[in-house]
Amino acid sequence: MNNRLDTDMNIVKSVIVCLGASVVLAACSAGGNNQGTEYAPNMYHSVAYEPYSQITDPGAGRWLTSIEYEDGHAEFFNSNTLNVSTMGVFMNMRTPPANTVPRNKNGWLPYRIPKDSLELAAKRLKNPVDSSAQVIAQGKVLYQTYCQHCHGAKGEGDGKVSEKYAGVANLKGDAYKNITEGHIFHVITNGKGLMWAHGSQMSAEERWMIAKYVKVLQK
């Protein structure tokens, strides 16, 4: 009895081993679009969807499909008939509203006055930050961080850098004491002469705070 039981168990084990070997061999017979037998293929075969187009072929990616979708489509199918652009093209993303541009956290539009239009910036730009003590204090800290090494603590062009490079602007001089905050903001953003642009180092709000503080120094 025991011998027969052992024989049956050996047969079962042999069948299991054969089935396992068959699965392994089948998985190794990959080629072209056939990747063989895979476990959870959806987890490591990502589909790069284009934002302005959709995959409208319901049979696309049939070889990868491992889920029974209600409408029978294959894995790569990605179409939403309710999301159609004005040109009649299916899209993955929503159509952006007309005449809109991104704004920052304060609702400000991107600064796009050209670098060589300093006079225009000086006339048209108005400082959107207030003149509160807190803003002035923040402007002072920013000035000390980004400006003082050139323009000096009092804005007189006597910072450490001026000892090596001549021509640092004296912000209290007659040529600068009447410049507008828009002028200052534009120069900080785009640079001028020997001064490099700082627009990538500070937010627009921080640049406006410095402009506000510079006008305090000039009084």
Automatic annotation (TrEMBL):
Query: Which interval of the chain is the signal sequence?
Result: 1-26
Pfam families, per database record: Cytochrome_CBB3
Keyword Signal in record: yes
Residue ranges spanning the membrane: these are none
- Tell me which residues make up the Cytochrome c domain: 134-218
Q: Which domain of life is it from?
A: Bacteria
InterPro entries reported in the protein's UniProt record: Cyt_c-like_dom, Cyt_c-like_dom_sf
Under Gene Ontology molecular function, one entry of this record is: metal ion binding
Name assigned to this protein:
Cytochrome c
